Amino acid sequence: MTGARRITVSAAQLGPVPLAASRAETLARLIKLLEEAAVAGSELVVFPEAALTPFFPHWLVEDAAELNGYYESELPGPNTQELFDAARELRLAFVLGYAERTAGDRRFNTAVLVDEGGEVVHRYRKIHLPGFRDVTPGTPFQNLEKRYFEVGDLGFGVQPWRNTTVGLAICNDRRWAETYRVLALRGAKLVCLGYNTPATTPHLAESDRLADFQNHLSMQAGAYQNSMWVVGAAKAGVEEGVAQIGGSAIIAPSGEIIATATTRGDELVTAEIDLDMASRYRRDVFNFAQHRRPEHYLPIVEPVATGNEYTETS
Ligand code: CDT
How far is the CA of 296 from the centre of ligand 1 (A)? Predict the structure, then answer.
């Protein structure tokens, strides 16, 4: 194996971003993590979903000016230029999750891949938006992503970067098998994602004790079943009263976690990864061309279960 096929990557976990924090204060935390990553020899740093702000879908924002303040309408822009400059000076690529507001006032939960020259080379808009459009009474916090964002309109694209092919996903996407499979079918060997995951789920309290387990389970299964590296970065800790899990991790195509966060604060998780490992697993166990048989999946013997029998109102 040649050295050129190994790269060092980091998940930059963030602790809570308080409502009272200025963008400059938050950006300074991201830049500090970039500087640590450079010292650690990292070449790619993955920041969480909505890294620049508190995760505002956790509450109802009725004031339009306040709501607009959570979105970025240009990237880089006045709120992010310093981060782009720092990364370019350090020759670091990074993945940044943020709330995007387009020129036509469309709003998406977005992540971008910025290369080491400071260019946005790939954009992904979150497809699996969890939660609701309307407030659920009687719950300690909301998830109003369906209110604040449209479903992503860019599909699951991939981007050649360095010696590999990168795919992006965001938070809830990581729980869906289709995310990894579509990215894998398109050739992704390295999937980067950020997340804001509450430690409790008001509507499914039985899963609370499993929040950390299910986080890793989703990413490990995606990595193994699709022969890809997964780098997951959390926004962790108690943010405006909502406790969020940490567990940022770098996961190999074997499904093994090779590095993980130990805190619920700002923490850099770094590992050297062997890009050829994804190809080796995909040549053998998960050789899609040789073993996958999608043409045989749909002719299901009756009765056909649609999976839609259960609805929230039933
Ligand atoms: N931000 C986000 O997508 N959060 C969701 C919360 C759902 S709780 C099971 C997540 O999947 O982590």
Answer: 33
- CA 62, chain centre distance (Å): 27
Taking CA atoms, 67 is separated from 113, 148, 239, 314, in Å, by 25, 9, 17, 33
Catalogue all structural domains in the chain, each as residue range(s) with its CATH number: 6-313 (3.60.110.10)
- 170 close to ligand 1 (CB < 6 Angstrom): no
What is the per-residue pLDDT across 217-273, written as a single tens digit (0 to 9) for each? 999 999 999 999 999 999 999 999 999 999 999 999 999 999 999 999 999 999 999
* Residue 50 near ligand 1, beta carbon < 6 Å: no
Name the closest-CA residue to atom 4, ligand 1: 197
Q: Checking DSSP bridges between strand 44-46 and strand 6-13, what pairing results, if any?
A: parallel
Cα 257 from Cα 230, distance rounded (Å): 9
For the chain, how long is the longest CA-to-CA vector?
61
Does ligand 1 come within 6 angstroms of the Cβ of 201?
yes
The one-letter code for the residue type at 56 is: F
CB 55, CB 235: distance < 8 Å = yes
Query: Is the shortest distance between the CB of 200 and ligand 1 below 6 Å?
Result: no
Token readout for 314 is 């039933």
What is the mean predicted confidence (pLDDT) over 143-169? Answer: 97
